[in-house]
């Protein structure tokens, strides 16, 4: 950046710097041992040297290591290569500027490998599409926002983990004055493209970065987010959602506002046998001449540590569910680091208790209306499905007996939870339980997907139902779901049915559907 020959005049340059607290700015000064006069410098006396030029360095400044003893810093169109004469000099620079750099709350609780995988996953448009095509999720969010228009009209809104920015657009549809869309994954650039193509650059500002690290230009009236993972808690984004309250005005609102996690005992002999059978591979005593049976018990332990993501009929539940409530307006981040949910179930049927089933509901409490998003097995299916945790040893219970115990959720650095379940049939004293890894679920739902469904607020053409015979679903089950959707005014088209008197084979896209005689569609 210096004129030709200036290096010879200036002589050796050396660096003075300071360690910065989080979010602070500092100055990097290259000092000359002699006074230089010329229009290209802003010279002034400074101790034993003169400031040749000065620029601001922040934590967002582009920088990288070059070779073994150099460091490149770029600010705007200006690049400075710092070359250290000794390895110890470079070591001191890295110690003060890298090692001692303060970590954000997110970085402190998250392994680097987990964060990298997480943001790469959500940086893909295919995953954004998967979430957007969950009609129940997307339509419910739009419904909650538009039906509470007065809460958004002329308000400043913060969208946490905005993804493609769909919730930001809903806020604008409700009359928001300005929306700050915070997104840390690479999909932020695509959100910016959507904002520009919809001519909303003056009202939706995309802030690329983690909510724990970005600086919002102003306090906000409403925070919106979709921070939900499997079993409500997976991915630990709820903590980021709670962290964002630092930008919320004293009487501000949050959408969603609160959540209920439900759990109930279930009986499912087929699931238990199927899951246990996954380990039968390791029972072989002559696999290409090798005895694998020594690993069978370890394989059983590993498979039973996996929560099962799928859906099921309400009839397998053996008791009324117990719920655990989280108020997002009041809960603290540390409240989610370790949670314990005690339970006492009064059994409504006799049989083997194979484990506990989990689902959740979230509420959007607005000034005009409260809207619920439910993932209960009695409701239309969402991309969250439900989650079941098996006991390695089932328990037998009779009608009227009580099953008591607790579920512990312990947060880990892999953006998930370790789950510990203990249960006992009080009258018999029989005990069981399990420890599970929510980060590593078993996805059993096969090809059961509800993709595009028209609804009362945003019409999406086409209906695609993929049915999987392996889970025992019937066409009639889906008709029941459509009827429920009609009652909730999510599905508004008239239903028509037809009985096939002869077996038929149909293909829906890549899915082969075998319809036996008597099927109702």
Automatic annotation (TrEMBL):
Location relative to the cell: Cytoplasm; Nucleus
Gene3D superfamilies assigned: Hnrnp arginine n-methyltransferase1, Pleckstrin-homology domain (PH domain)/Phosphotyrosine-binding domain (PTB), Vaccinia Virus protein VP39
InterPro entries reported in the protein's UniProt record: Arg_MeTrfase (IPR025799), PH-like_dom_sf (IPR011993), PRMT_dom (IPR055135), SAM-dependent_MTases_sf (IPR029063)
Classification via Pfam families: CARM1, PrmA, PRMT_C
GO biological process terms on file: methylation
PROSITE patterns: SAM_MT_PRMT
EC number(s) stated in the UniProt entry for this protein: 2.1.1.319
Keywords associated with the record: Chromatin regulator, Cytoplasm, Methyltransferase, Nucleus, S-adenosyl-L-methionine, Transcription, Transcription regulation, Transferase
Enzyme class: transferase
GO cellular component annotations of the record: cytoplasm; nucleus
Main localisation: cytoplasm
Swiss-Prot/TrEMBL catalytic activity: L-arginyl-[protein] + 2 S-adenosyl-L-methionine = N(omega),N(omega)-dimethyl-L-arginyl-[protein] + 2 S-adenosyl-L-homocysteine + 2 H(+)
Superkingdom of this protein's organism: Eukaryota
Name this polypeptide is given: Histone-arginine methyltransferase CARM1
